Amino acid sequence: MAQERFEDKQLAKKDEAKIKGEAVEEKTNPHEQAKNAVKADEKAAPAKAETPKTAKKAEKESKSAKDEKPALKVVLERKYTVNLTEAYAKPKYKRTDRAISLLRDFCLRHMKGKDVKVDVELNNAIRQSVRPAKKVQIVLQKDERGTVTARLAAAG
Question: What does CATH list as the number for 74-152?
Fold first, then answer.
């Protein structure tokens, strides 16, 4: 619909210019200009010997090389069972937030770290509903910088 309005306006301007005898400038929709520019760049780019799959792999490898950080040495690793029943003293809609804060406090207290990072699986296990688990088995790892990483212990 917007495209039709745009085209109608352009036609009206062309008609007025023709009546007045002026030169007519061709204008296109800015979105179409961007699409046309991308197509022109693709046509102008020389064909590479690489197949699209190898080009994507090379791009991923270069990105991963840039994003790679040196692995920090794990200084301390412990396994705990954390009691999160205190979260049930809060209203239902605040329980998961309270459970996460209890977990973070527990990690800082027991591992004497500076910062806590909660693993995605552990976060999902706690935040699965408004009724978080009352006890969670976790593995805590402390690295050289003092960052404590909390992850869910393997079941079994």
Answer: 3.10.440.10
